Amino acid sequence: MRPSDERAAGMLADACGLGLTAAQVLLHRGLCDAEEARSFLDSTLRGLSSPEPMADRALASERIARAIRARERIVVFGDYDVDGTTSAVILSEMIATLGGEVRTLIADRFHGGYGLSDEALDRCLAERPGLLVTCDCGSSDHERIAKATANGIDVIVVDHHLVPQEALPAFAFLNPHRPECGFAYKGLCSAGLAFSLGAALRSELGARLDLRAWLDLVAIGTIADIAPLTGDNRRLVRAGLKKIGAPGTRPALVALRQAAKIPESAQLTARDVAFRFSPRLNAPGRLGVADLTLRFLTATTPKEAWGLLQDVEAQNDERKALANRATEEARAQVCELYGETPEEGVVVASDAWHRGVVGIVAARLVDAFGVPAVVIAVDGEHGHGSARTTADFDVYSALARCTSDLSAWGGHRAAAGLSLSKSAIDSFRAAFLRATQGEGFGEQRLAEVDVALGGAFRVPTLEDLQRLGPFGEGHPVPTFLVDAHVVEAKGVGEGRAHGKLKLRVGQDSVRAFAPGMFSRIEGRENLRLVGEFQPDHWIGGRAVELLVKDVLD
């Protein structure tokens, strides 16, 4: 339990127009000064970091502007995940709106794989462009960029992945992680970088272009890529979430809201995007048809969007079935190889798993066992894997100690992809175990509760939660301890495993959902619950619902 300070919270609440509970959360986040807290709560796009120091931003915008004026063909190439697709759509649509001739291509997981592969470059060259712009890839694609340049094509790289030491032979290279890049905020994903480049392009051409039209895709790309929701990203995502619910929303996002059963009147949260939008948009790329997501996001009519959504949903249903089966088998393999409570990183592999779902399975293993995990799908004599990790462990650095067993790899602190030969899996497993030893993964980690509700600390309002949010990486959802009287409880779902509750919490009435916990709730009149509050989309209006994370005995 984090200690509460009712007096300090009360002063901050009065100064910011907040409830006491929300003010206490701010205190825990280090926002004790009223002026600083108000700036945080009401942050807007006006507070974005100055883009002028971003390395090569001006050079890139000048080159794209020259291509637009000369009617030079531009190919925008994006990676197959949501960040890659949204950043490619953002930049392509901006270029087209400004009068450019542009063709948009997306990487194929099964024909070339991640990034600007040889196969991908051949597809780009077939379009006969004068300019190639890569989105969410390219930082490590030195050979292909050099080949494009040798063919008389200028290459602009827009990426946020870690930067190798070897200089990139690109015409321009936008990446905040370049050592010489003076841009103050380093957390932008590729969707945010594409948005910034579009702003520079507008200025370069002296054009009238309302950049707010693309904030929806910036928000989705940022959340889907698990970029930190701090600083500039928080400002962009706040504005983007509002854009998704505003009149004139692109048809694909209207269709997604309806498919996810989110009322038109409800303002989306980052959680809605992360758990209801992102899996759907990622599914085609995982299964090898990433251009489906591209076509869906760029649909111009509701009829077209609905037709494409049916294909997206079918891909997502297949993805769920493949991931669930692989997860069950992977968990059993972890227990067989490492025991029920592994204390180091785990590596599992199978030729029965679809390589498009290994990242999902790896993330689930991290949740289940609390250790870094690598999941490898074996195809013939080769394996393709994904690594995921716990919040406080750098899996990129761990993989850097295992490179002798890998034929290719890349990524960042929280996630990475890799390739290796089937014969190297056992050696890699041993190397990864050594690279993760002594980190204390087997030790019990306690979850922190922000505020215990009771007395003056009441259930937070939806308005307060929206001002505190959006929540995500780097700015987690606040956790509450709730002493509640059970007004009604029923089991729902398969085997009545989940609990649907109506609770009385002090002066407040609130609904709650307890996934997989009904057996721990059934028949009890009073409960101590730990959970998070979120908009109650079922009731609508200003109602909030408690998402139960644990039931305390």
Q: What features would you describe in this structure?
A:
With about 550 residues, this protein is α/β, with parallel strands linked by helices. Among the domains are: about 55-235, inorganic pyrophosphatase (n-terminal core); about 340-435, Diaminopimelate Epimerase, Chain A, domain 1, CATH 3.10.310; about 450-550, OB fold (Dihydrolipoamide Acetyltransferase, E2P). It is about 40% helix and about 20% strand. It is built from 19 helices and 16 strands. It has a five-stranded parallel sheet, with helices on both faces. The protein has a five-stranded mixed sheet with strand order 6-7-8-10-9. Strands 12-13-14-16-15 form a five-stranded mixed barrel. The longest helix is centred in the middle third of the chain and has 37 residues, at about 300-340. The model has no long low-confidence stretch (mean pLDDT about 95).
Radius of gyration: 24 Å
Strand arrangement in the largest pleated sheet: 2-1-3-4-5
- Reported by name, the CATH topology of the domain at 57-234 is inorganic pyrophosphatase (n-terminal core)
Judged by helices, strands and strand pairing, the structural class is alpha/beta
Spans with pLDDT under 50 lasting ≥5 residues? none
Dominant shape: globular
Biggest sheet descriptor: 5 strands, parallel
The first-level CATH class name of the domain at 57-234: Alpha Beta
Calculate the mean pLDDT score and round it: 95
Under the CATH scheme, the architecture of the domain at 57-234 is Alpha-Beta Complex
By DSSP (H or I, 4+ residues per run), the number of helices equals 19
What portion of residues belong to β-strands? Answer: 15-25%
Percent range of helical residues:
40-55%
> Oligomerization state of this entry?
single chain
